[in-house]
Batch of 2 targets.
Target 1
Amino acid sequence: YKTHHYKTHHYKTHHYKNHHYKNIQIKRICLTTSMIVASMSLVACNNNDNDSNDPKPQQIATNTNLNFTILETSDLHNNVMSYDYYKLTEDKSFGLERTATLIDNARSESANNILLDNGDTIQGSALGDYQATVSPVKCDETLGIYKVMNDLKYDAGTIGNHEFNYGLNYLNQITGSQFNVDGITASASACKGPDFPLVLSNVISARNNQPLFKPYKIITKTFTATTPDGKTVTVPLKIGIIGFTTPGIMQWDKKWLDGKVTTAGAKEMAEKYVPQMKTEGADVIVALSHGGIDTSPYSPTMENASWHLSQVAGIDAILMGHTHQVFPDASSKDTRLDQASIDKVNGLLNNVPAVMPSFWGKGLGVIKLNLTFDGKKWVVNKNNTKVEVRTIQNADKTFVAANPRVARLIQAEHNATINYVKTPIGTSDFSMTSYFADVGDVSAIQVVNQAQANYISDYINANLPQYKNIPVLSVSAPFKSGFAGGSDYTDVAQGNIAINNAADLYLYPNTVFAVKIQGSDIKKWLENSAKRFNQINPSLTTPQALISTFPGYNFDMFTSADVQYEIDVTKPIGSRIQNLTYKGKPIEDNAPFIIATNNYRASGLKEYYNINSSNVVESPDANRDVLINYIKATKNLSLTNNGSSRSWRFVKVKTAGPVTFKSSANKIDFAQKAGLTNISVVNNDDGSNKGLADYAIDLSK
Ligand code: MG
Ligand code: MN
């Protein structure tokens, strides 16, 4: 920790002594401060706003050349540690403790750097929930992830949509703000926020029509540059940082924001503030855009405005996020990127360098800019720019080491979160398992569907009155269905349900989506799901495997008494769904339905199903969080109400030979508990050495 400080400090002092007498006063401040409080020294040096000590631009020799590196994290979602709180196990594939190593490496390549965060920072892990809602961080305490970011010497950040998830009061507190907004009482002093500034230009207080946060900040960094005659000099560079978030907050967090704030268009705000920043002396302007790339016609409420921002004059670099993608990505199959104005290989939008570093700290965005001083101002050499995303996963699939300082800083919060996820949120009078989900057990699926349908119904009632009279249904699938062996099944025991059990019920970090489709599409959707089964020939006397290679996590099913259908596995793919009814009547082809699902399935619908769907709700809320909240609200789950409502059955057929499938060994009891009396054990060890057994199903029963 101290070594790191010393090195940076020493480096700067060295440069001052040899090359730039003008900075004497700055260096004295640094030295003096560092003697008293070591941890303050870098803040004083790095975030130096003391313009009076900077050399005047005319003191910089014409054609002086400067390289500097912009580093970006985005969508960290409070994943500080490489730890999955739901599975209660380490997961090296994410976590700021590892991105920190990428940051250190990038800084060791170039001391001319600036580190920025693009939002969706405080919410998205159990750690975030714990500090916001379970044991709320106090006014005089720094939020855990901000403590770590302070230590990593972030220069600035912006606000993502998820920063609003816990309400304006909480956001005001933990960011050390003093929002001038209805519902927040003015206080004499702000609570403890991060050491670095947060900027956001397009969320506007309804009270005074001014941005809730500072719209932008100009940070003066002292960088080394090279004069035309080859000397190294230190120069000040004024970097203007402006932030934008996605206007969807007004729907997603309506309950916190309605009437208190509004959003303004990113482009309008950029056009307003970029010239202002230039007037105030910004040499370079970096846009923190919590949004992705969308080339469709501009609207002030569009979700992903980064491409349109790239057309605003004066923006030199765009740091993106929100869509959790990697950009640039030469191998991207996203056809929306295949147009002349987008360079997905070199990371350019309309020739402006732009980067998006994945999410959860999996990657670090890096933009290397090259500037020349033309005698009056710094000019970015556009053909000498390098944009890349560096990942915490190495080429050999291993992961970079964690920075050990991070774990030390967050240890207390981390341990408290682990205790929290082990605490009960409800009870269940049945075991929720997926061992026999392929053949009809819904004990691990129904509660997920109930939670999703309930959430979407509430959302529609609150926000989308035009859909109020359309039935809301939900589909979900057995996410854990034995692919990795006998332990790869959901198994939540009867009794207390803890928060981490929710991960067993909902494996993936998906978000809730709802699509509006018509009756004929429901049949197509279910026909696709029925690909889970091989076509069975009833006359064969040899054993036939029931389950195909179609993944279990794509085996979507309803679990509502209102929807009934049969699957005829003797028929070819595409003609297996029989007797599909809604409330006892055949579903009409053109009858509208809203189906709750997840972002992953919704985005695949049009491509894979030839289904005519329109997304009506694209919620940023995780299905898993929605499930947790549903269980908390329901408290006591019962087999009758939450675990036994089947929508589908196999069409009965007598087969000459056995129809078999695999599941975890020694689990036949769970089939019986689910009322599946037509299941038998063929062989309790299938010989795969994976803890799997062979079972048979009698399709005539
Ligand atoms: Mg976001
Ligand atoms: Mn995000």
Target 2
Amino acid sequence: MPKKPVIADFNREIFDLRLKRSHDDLFEMLERLYSRDRHYEQFLTALDGVMRKAFAERADDLKRLDLKRDLEPDWFQRSDVNGYVFYIDRFAGNLKGIAQKLPYLKDLAISYVHFMPCLKPRPGDSDGGYSVMDYRAVNPAYGTMADLEAATKLLRDNGISVCIDLVLNHTAKEHEWAVKAAAGEKAYQDYYLMFDDAAEPKAYERDLIEIFPEHAPGSFTHYPAFGKWVWTTFNEHQWDLNWANPQVFLEMAEVMLFLANKGVDVLRFDAVAFMWKRMGTRCQSEPEVHMLLQALRAVCRIVAPAVIHLEEAIVSPSEMLPYLGRGAHDGKEGNLAYHNSLMVQFWSALAARDTRLMTHVMKTHFPPVVTNATYATYLRCHDDIGWAVTDEDASAIGIGGRAHRAFLSDFYEGTFPGSFSRGALFQENSDTGDKRITGALASLAGLEQAEEDGDAGKIDRAIDRILMGHALIASYGGVPLIYMGDEIALTNDYGYTAVPEHAHDSRWLNRPMMDWARTEAASDTPAGRVRDGVRHILHRRRAVKALHGANPTIVIDTGNPRLFAFLRKAPAGPLLCLFNFSEEWTSIDSGLAAHHGVTRFHDLLSDADLQLHDGVIALPPYARVWLA
Ligand code: GLC
């Protein structure tokens, strides 16, 4: 009797079970998005083929990881997940160089790394790698696809997950599809949003918001060579894809699975808010965007469930929640999404020395938990900071929205009297009065100025602001992302103006080269103090299991405008996290802590007991405590 191919059967069974599990999540969305297309049935058949092929090609060790993570679906919510974000060349030279940096990452307690855009970009200015001409090739400056695969394997073997960017909204105009479209191939012109004359673009533009008003004004580009207007939300060289075309979904699903099979753990979906266009709207966060994202997640859950999605939607608080899996797509959208509001509110409260707006926003807009998901928390990244504070939220605490946003811009640019910050403006928009800010964490938090002044007191305060921020993002709930160089307090990199492809974009102020000498700084220098402090925070986070992302985060209004406070409701007992946003001493009544079930007054961050004075917990300037 011939032997039965047990493994093949088992594989097929697993695939079919997963298809069944995610069937409705996927096909209900596709039905709503594409069923009116006359090739809908062919599209479904093709997608089925794409999924089965990718599953068949998926390596055994990755399939084992799929099983493991299906059994431990909270793997990315645990307190031992600490993220680190870097440009491969700026951190390690190239992909092969990462191996040598492993001890550094391990020492920092890092278990998740985000390689900034690493797929093949267009030559010249590529918007920091976000203008991709080939999703199946690695940036040649970093190595090859085989090097990427080797790097993900090495990191996986060392307990570190890898996140890479997948730019969904646009491709470079040098991408093969775009080149064919420009050559007049109708099928490929349908991959993009192209118009024969200016009428439709003009009609759309009435409601669109410019993203780069200074260096790339408008949202469309006219190409006389092939007689079309092309939708270019970001830069002229970034052509928006037409996601209303099922063929685009098919192609991108294939790319997504191709990358998943290279051993990537997390896919960062770039600029997702812009994926669907509707006349008469801002063309951001349209309902179809969420349908697309749910469908893409379902595809991964079927073929490669070890892989999760991080969504980048830098929008206002209420618009952001659906990306975190709230509302109609509850628990089925991004596993991770950037907590832009927490980041904005951190900077806002720091400048104002007043946490009322922060407490209001975090309390009213964000639920204590999100389903099957958690936040990506951060203080700085490679991008600018836009003051996403609504007029309604500002007026709820009795301040003016426009005035507060203007104050924050002036403060962080450093022009507001008494400001400690050294930032720069990015893309001032004269229509809306918006002034975005860019700069390194250490410079924005006051270290650059303090060191220039040689003022020891100012240096202390700047370091405390930095460490308070890290203690905040490490405890709020979610994966804290440390942006390369922030752990050694790197300040602004003014050298970018000498690089022709970067000079027009002040975000490069905050995209420095790693300074390895600085990582060895003595413990009593600012760099050494920040390094030791960040390292300590990340190690403590790893040890404090109560910080698991699924434990509710309940923001508390203590009535003290200097303090930001929240409770992490762990089953084994609550944790009260307190942050003093001012350079003055402040205090909190121990009765308030006791009221929330916190009675031991043991600070899990310093791992020491706090001394009470007449029933009062005294908190020094920029204090941060995690009270058990
Ligand atoms: C995202 C990236 C940003 C880029 C934009 C366009 O927002 O973070 O750097 O400019 O997408 O791709």
